[in-house]
Structures
1.
Amino acid sequence: MAVASIPGYAYGGVPPSPVTAEDLERLRASVLFTEEDERWLRRAGEVLEPQVDDVLDLWYGFVGSHPHLVRYFAGPDGQPDATYLARVRERFGRWILDTCTRPLDADWLAYAEEIGLRHHRTKKNQTDGVEAEPEVPLRYLIAFIYPITATIRDFLAKGGDAVEAVEAMHQAWFKSVVLQVALWSRPYAPEDW
C-alpha cells in the first residue's frame, strides 16, 4: 500500500498535537503500554500486512450492517457514499499498519490528533469534501474499541505463532487501540472546558 497514493493520508503533514510527549508517556503508563508491547506490535504488523484487505472486509461488513454506523458515510440522500467509503478504507488500512509499525513520536501524535479532528465536527468531511453527518459521536469511537480488538485475534493467529505470542500481540494491539482512542477523544473534551 503506497502511502503517497492514499488520498487524505497526511502522516507527517499536519500541525503538531497539543498533546505533549509527557502527556503521551502518562497515557502509555495508564494503559500499561511498554517497549515489549511495541515489539509485539511490530510482529503483529508482519502478520497483518498480507491480511489488511480481509480485516477491512470484516470491519466494513460490521459497519455496513449497522445503519446507525454507516450513516456517518452517507450523503445528503441518506445513501452510503461509495467514494467516501473507499477513501476512508485506504486510510483505515494504512492505520492498521501504522498502529503496528510507526514510532510513537511527534509525527504519530500529530496524526492521532488529525484522526480525532476528522471524526469531530472540527474537520469531519473536509478531507474528502463530502456532505455526510458532521460528526461521529465519541461514544461510537469508544464502542468501536471492542470489535476492532476482538476481531483482530483470528487474523493474528494466522501468522503461525505460538498461542502465547498471539496473546501478546493481541494485548499489545488492544493497548494501542485504547491509547489511540484516548488521543482521538481530545477534540471532544478539550482540557480548557
Note: The radius of gyration is 16 Å.
2.
Amino acid sequence: MPAPTSLPADLRRPAYGTATLADVLPGAAAALGVPLDRGDVPADPLGLTTALAGARRVAVLLVDGLGADLVRRHADLAPTLAGMAAPAGDLSAPCPSTTPVSLTTLGTGLPPGSHGVLGFVTDVPGEDRALNHTQWRDDPDPDTWAPQPTVFGRAAAAGVPATVVAPYAYTGSGLSRAAYRGATYTGTVGAGDLAALVLRALRATPRALVYGYFADLDLTGHVRGVDSDSWRAQLQLVDRMVEHVVAGLPGDAALLVTADHGMLDVPAATRLDLDAVPELDDGVRLLAGEPRARYVHAVPGAASDVLDRWQEVLGERAWVVSREEAVASGIFGPVDPGVAARIGDVVALARGTWALTASGREPGPSRLTAFHGSLTATELAIPLLLAPGASLT
C-alpha cells in the first residue's frame, strides 16, 4: 500500500473514532447501559454517557441534509434547534458524505470501509452492474453485502427495546436492513406522524432507544437549493417538529438531533458535464458515485491511463487519486479487503463548489440545484444537539 496521501487544504479527513456520526448511537446506547465492544475505538468518545446521565430513554432524530453550517446560518428560523445544547460540538459525516453511507455508519457505529456501503451508487464487483443504495431491495442480499451488526440489535439483545421511525417507503429496503437490523421498524407518513410516533415509542417502555429519520429537508435542498425560500420554509417546519418532540419528552428521556451531511448550492459556472468530455470515457467501464464524489471503474489494464487523464482534465476541480491512494489516506476509515473493489479504480472528490455531472447518463441528478458527497467543511460538519426531559435538567 502506498504511503498516506495528503488531502488538499480545502478537504478534510473524517475523524473516525473521535467525533463522527459513527459515534452517536454507540454513545447513546452506552448511556442506556448497553455493553459495546468497538475494538480499538472508545465506546463513547463523545461523552454522551455523561451528557445523558440519568436518561432511561433516548431518541436520536436524524434530519437529512441538516448541516451544522446551515443551522448556524439560519438560527433565526430555527429557534428550537438554535436553543439546544451541543454536548460534543460539530461532528463529521463519513466519506462520501451522502445518505446511504451515513445512515449505515450511524446504525452500525462503523466507518464506511468497515460496513461496506461506500457510496450512493457503487459497482457490484464481478457482475458488471451498479447498485443504487436508495433503490436497493434484496439484490445483493443485504445480509451478505452489509452484514455488520447494528447498535440497534445490540441494544435489543441487552434488553433495551430499539425502534426505528422512518418513511413507509423504506420499510424492508436493503438499506434499512443494513442500517437498522435488529430494530422494530415503524413507517411514517410525514413530519407530524414522525414526531408523534417517536414520542409513542419513547413512552411505550421504561427503557428505550428510538431513532427517527426525516428526509424532506434534503429533498427540498436538492431541488430548490439551500439558498431558497422553499428550503428556509422547510427548515421552519423541521424546527416545529423538533419543538413538538421536545415538549412531549417523558421526564427521564432525552432527544439528540443530528444529520447525515451538509449541502451546498452549485452554480452553472462550476459544473463539469462529464458526458461533454468524451476523452474522460476512454478506458472507463463504469461511472459510479454521484456528482461530488465519483468512482471511476476502468476496463482491465486501463486504470493508470484513466487516472492520468482524469487528473489532467479535472485539474483543481477535484482531488483525483487511485483507489489505493484514497484508501491509504484514511478517508473511509480502515477498509476491509472484501469491500475495497466497490471503490473505483479512480476516486474524484469535488473541490470548492464543483460538481461532476453526467447529463446523458444521469439526467435527473445532473439537474439538481444543491449537492453533497465530498469532504469540504460544509458537507462534513453536522450538528449534535441535545434536549433533556424535565427530570434530567
Note: The chain has 16 helices and 18 strands.
3.
Amino acid sequence: MKTSARWYSQRMKREATLVRWGTYGQPVLLFPTAGGDAEEVERFLMMKVLAPLIDAGKVKIYSVDSVAGQAMVQKEGSPGHRQWLLNQFHQYVRHEVVPAIRKDCNDEHLEVFSAGASIGAFHAAAVLCRFPDVFSKAICMSGTYDLRRFMSADRFGDDFFVSSPLHFVPTLAGPHLDKLRTRYVLIPSGEGRAEDISESWNLARVLGSKGVPNRVVSWGKQTPHDWMTWRDMLPLYLRELLPG
C-alpha cells in the first residue's frame, strides 16, 4: 500500500512530501539522492526489490523530498542559506517526519532506521548521529560525507557544522554520545565507477574514534556508483539488521 502526505514546514519555509510504502513492520526512512524527490526511490525500482520485505510485513518504507540536496544542486540562494536549509531539513525530519511516522505506526516511542545512497547516505548518517534518541540503525550506501565542496562557500557557520557528522561527532560527549554508542552505522560502498570508498572510511574513523559501532563493507572494483548497486545492497542489509 502506498500513501503520501504533503504539508508546509515552517522550519524549511516550504512544502515537502512524505511517501509511505507498506502497512506493517520496521519503519525505514529512505533518503533520496541529492536532487531527488520522495518518489525517486520508486522510479529507480527500489520498491520492486524491497517488495518481498514490504509484503511480508517486515518493513514500512518512508521517503521525503531531498530539500537540502535540491538546494545544493540548484545553488539556491547564498551559501549561508544552503547551510541554514541543511540544518532545517534535519530539524524537519526529527520534529515533523518522525512524529508523522510514529503516528502512522501508532507508537509514539518507535525507533526508526535511516538509509540512503550518495547524498542520501550523508543524511542517513547525519540524522542518526544527531538524533540517536529516535534513529537506531543507519544503512549508508556509497556515501559522500564531506559536503563542503558542494556549498561553494568561503565560510562555514554553525548551521553547517551541527549538520555534518564528520565535524560534530568529534565534539560529542555526555548523554548524547552515550546514546549514540548504542546505535549502529553500516557503511557499504563499491570501488568502481564514480565510487570513492575513502569517504566511507573517513566517516568510519570519526565514528570509531568516539566509540560508535560501525562497519565499512567494500563491494569491490566492479561495483559502480549506481542504482543497480543500491538495489542489491539495501534488501541484503535490511534482512541483516531486522530482528528475527
Note: The chain has ten helices and eight strands.
